[in-house]
Predict the 3D structure of the following.
Amino acid sequence: MLVFAALCCAGSSVAEEMANYEAVQEQTAKTFQQIEAEMKFNKNWNGNGNANENANKNANKNTEIEFLHKDRAPFSKENWTWMHTNPGVRAYKPMEDLTFVGIPVFVAGWIAKSEKYGFKQQGKHSLVTNFKSGVDDYLQFFGPAFTVGLKVAGVEGRSDWGRFLATTAMSYGIMAGFVNGIKYTAKEMRPDGSTANSWPSGHTATAFVGATILHKEYGLTRSPWYSVAGYTVATATGIMRVLNNRHWVSDVFSGAGIGIMSTELAYALSDVIFKGKGLLRNNLTTGKSIIENPSFFSLSMGMGFGSRNMDFDMGKFEFDEGDGDPRFNLKFGTSTAVGVEGAYFFNKYFGLGGRLRVNSSPIKGWGGITDYAWKDVNAFVDYMSETAETEEELDQIAEWVDMDNVKFAIESDHLTEFAVDLGAYFNFPLSKRFALGTKFLVGRSIMQEINLEATVSGKVYDLVGEGDDHYEMQRRDPVQDYETSWDYFTVGANNTYKIGTGISLTYAYKDNFAWKIFLDYDYSRKTYTMEYAPMGFMQAASPSLYKEFINEGFDVSPYSQSIKKDRNTFILGGSFTINF
């Protein structure tokens, strides 16, 4: 949805920018016609042939005329030049567009690597996700595909074909060297346990190379909404790599940093190698600074810290009472926050705006949860085995619950919060390039639950009699197999109101663009509810015994427990920002 909205905004803004561009062209053409007319008038009036000199004097009285170049017709011959340079386009300085923003993004991923040790593949439980999509395999190429499409359509960007292709090749080459060099040295295991080449994410690095190419070629020279579209799609690619269970959050951060760094380095090398050759446009110069005109739209990523654990009393739920710690403690790792934010400022100090954010906190130590689950299954089978009086009855119980095929799957290992906030924004300029900001927001917090799914299979048995201290069971005839899955363990939270604030430092590196680093704080009070269903297989395994348990007052329904807890979240991150 974020990608679609950004593309829609990009489309409308590009159309507006093209309309303004054509208006300027028309006005410039009129200016040249006026100068030409004055040249002819001065030549006739002076009668001495000094037309050029008089024309130059008149031209100097006017504001400087920018060399404007019409876009080329799609598929026309003039659209396929190799190293053409438009007149009036100056050469870029090698360090002019280097922001170095990729370095802290990469370091943030390196710092967050500890989150992956919260889960370890072991025994008969696995980490799986309900989200399955192959779209990220294609979205990673959105940036170059869109850029090439614009060039083929005749829309001039920063570079002609020769310089563009050389810079693109260098960008991907540098990125591939960094990514593969680190991948096969670090040898980090993927969350799905498939291969040991998780960190950093190659898909995310590829996506951010493409986004930065689009930003350099068209975002800086034509419209900032091209940049928003590119970085939105790149961010979506990284998120889907996590949702598809192919990467840890740290992999995505480091991949994004490498992608941005590699492209900025490649463009700096092109400025050194080609100098002014093959340049078609310079960066936009609107004269508006985000410091003095702080209305903005931004795309942000960050890491969350704060409330780190929840305690549930599991003692009263256990079959085997007194065995193990009755306190069940859920520990949370560093969370990942992705959001969009914007505000309209009535002056350079005060504005109103809002924010949409997704904050996902991974659970550490799932082994403790699965230990409880396995203990419950074994305790129930042991309880039923104690009622057996013959070897044949023991064999029947083993056939009834096939312990070799009991499985536990962690379907969601993140407690995810979706939040929308509205409020007041404040801006305090420090210089022409830097400003401090703060905000006070009120919003709504919506939580998505986490859960452990169990799968049990075996032969269906029916209750045929009941002795003094045991149940008489018989395999159903004809033989009937069963396999059932259910939510063995879930934790969720209610939807609540929240308040938030934060501080930010803005660096305006171009007229329309800025990078922000921010520290946000959010507070809400949540009621967390745990549901625990150890007997979820009983109705499928033996319907008659299930009914007998109910008749005897044995509670086979899910157990539930709730606790109230303050949720304090600090989010440290950065954002890519455009002003309007």
